[in-house]
Amino acid sequence: MSEYDRKDAGLYDSFSTGLEGDEAFYTEEAARVEGPVLELGCGTGRIMIPVAEAGVPIVGLDRAPAMLEVARRKVAGLPEETRQRIQIVEGDMRTFSLNRHFPLAIIPYRAFLHMMTAEDQRRALTQIHSHLTKRGRLVLNVFDPSIELIAAYMKPPRGTLNHLGSFTHPETGRRVLVSDTRRYDPLEQTLEEHRFFEEVDDEGRVIAKTTTPLYLRYVHRFEMQYLLELCGYEIEGLYGDFQRGPFKHGNEQVWVARRI
């Protein structure tokens, strides 16, 4: 099963609620530019829709049809004025071609980490570069890999089930328990995660279960800087959170780069 089948798409917004301050941060960045914004990995529209509601035209691109279906349903319920600011495109950030240029491209919520090889990463950054206006900006965030956390997951027993929390099913109102297993490969810098959603009745019996895989390639701080520079960007800023605080190892890498 491919992670882009996204069998959890209908549950995604109930559990994957973002990082503290990221929605306001990206909306603020979008409001600073004149002209449309390009969002890569727009998913169900969690960032895309607030940007449009703030009055900024935005094109959202993603390669997961199930996620885009959720996004389109959400957009359909918006006021006409807001809907007119949104364009949704199914595509791959490595190969897309829109025949237009943007003053700002954003990749929120660590979506860049879905690029599973260094070549994929370069292709994506180069393709985005070709869609930016002269001196256009790219803003993205990825988690900063914690060596201590990775080492802890490498200890036996590997494949341990981790309990992540619960939420209320958006349609049935039942409780959904969330857990996962994770496997890190420090040589390849990859993370393979399998996430399990178990819907339970009032007696706690599991009546429905959804499993979805997640594959990421994490990027170290200087590696990310060199990737950006290699692909034709200059670094304007690196923050450790969405309040523009200083970068700290093991937290978040929030990058602001400009096309050279």
Principal-axis shape equals globular
What Rg do the Cα atoms give?
Answer: 19 Å
Strand content: 25-35%
| Element order: H for helix, E for strand | HHEHEHHEEHEHEEEEHEE
Number of helices: 8
Number of strands: 11
Please bin the fraction of helical residues: 25-40%
Q: Return residue spans where pLDDT drops below 50 for at least 5 consecutive residues.
A: none
Major β-sheet profile? 7 strands, mixed
User: Strand pairing plus helix content: what structural class?
Assistant: alpha/beta
Overall pLDDT level: 95
Straight-line N-to-C gap: 39 Å
Strand order of the largest sheet: 3-2-1-4-5-11-10
Describe this structure in words.
- Strand 6 and strand 7 form a beta hairpin.
- The model has no long low-confidence stretch (mean pLDDT 95).
- The protein has 260 residues and is α/β, with parallel strands linked by helices.
- The longest helix is centred in the middle third of the chain and has 13 residues, at 118-130.
- It is 27% helix and 34% strand.
Compose a concise summary of this entry.
27% of the residues lie in helices and 34% in strands.
Identify the notable features of this structure and list them briefly.
27% helix; 4-stranded antiparallel sheet; 34% strand; 260 residues; alpha/beta; 8 helices; single chain
Topology:
Elements: H1 9-15, H2 22-31, E1 37-40, H3 48-53, E2 58-62, H4 65-76, H5 80-83, E3 86-90, E4 102-107, H6 118-130, E5 132-143, H7 147-154, E6 162-168, E7 175-185, E8 190-200, E9 206-217, H8 221-230, E10 233-239, E11 252-259
Parallel strand pairs: 1-2, 1-4, 2-3, 4-5
Antiparallel strand pairs: 5-11, 6-7, 7-8, 8-9, 10-11
